[in-house]
């Protein structure tokens, strides 16, 4: 059927990749029967599951290309392409059913079953096969499109969460940087304050020493003035006291003066 289909180069490439994945899945499940170790079987199932996810993505791209080229292709070509897409979906579901069987055989009940849906409320792989056989082509197209849209929405929500996380991380980093710079400025200001306090303490001590010196000088001058006053008072009270020297610059006390008078009848020539 693949050789009779009329496809664009893009569709042929996607279709070829899907068929290559299906061949790899068929060979993988054949080898799985020959593996006896449960750990190796689990690893092989993980690899096959990844192939199924890749096939699902490619089928979605195949459907998009069909829709893009729908207006340029004849109706019979579009029908053949849609039939091929549904055939690939059924084949993928058959591999999903095989995976479920092997998972149950391994006893790994907690493993996530791979199906065309994204949530736990979606039909299981076996139910998908039964539903696909009972649905028309248009219903299958709608169901596949809906499932792909839901997957796109889930991916978009995940991208938004990642974007929000990056924004929060960036804001946090900016805030931390600002706080670090502010702490640096505070430390510098504290150093300046400490230096100013130290200089002020030294200045206060210097002023205290200067004040003490000035007080000593004033006291000494006061004592000198008191001594000078005492000497002056003693000189005035007892001018004949020879024990006290004359104060330089101070006139000696005036001696007692006698009044000269002329006796009666005497005159000067």
Automatic annotation (TrEMBL):
Highest taxon listed in the record's lineage: Eukaryota
Location, primary (coarse class): membrane
Listed transmembrane segments: 217-237
Alphabetically ordered keywords of this record: Coiled coil, Membrane, Protein transport, Transmembrane, Transmembrane helix, Transport
Localization per Swiss-Prot or TrEMBL: Membrane
Topological relation to the membrane, as annotated: Single-pass type IV membrane protein
An MF annotation (GO) of this entry: SNAP receptor activity
SMART domains per the UniProt record, alphabetical: t_SNARE
Coiled-coil blocks: 35-98
PROSITE patterns: T_SNARE
GO cellular component, as recorded: endoplasmic reticulum membrane; ER to Golgi transport vesicle membrane; Golgi apparatus; late endosome membrane; SNARE complex
GO biological process: protein transport; vesicle fusion
Domain T-SNARE coiled-coil homology: 145-207
Secretion signal, residue range per the UniProt entry: none
Family: Belongs to the novel plant SNARE family.
Protein name: t-SNARE coiled-coil homology domain-containing protein
Originating species: Crotalaria pallida
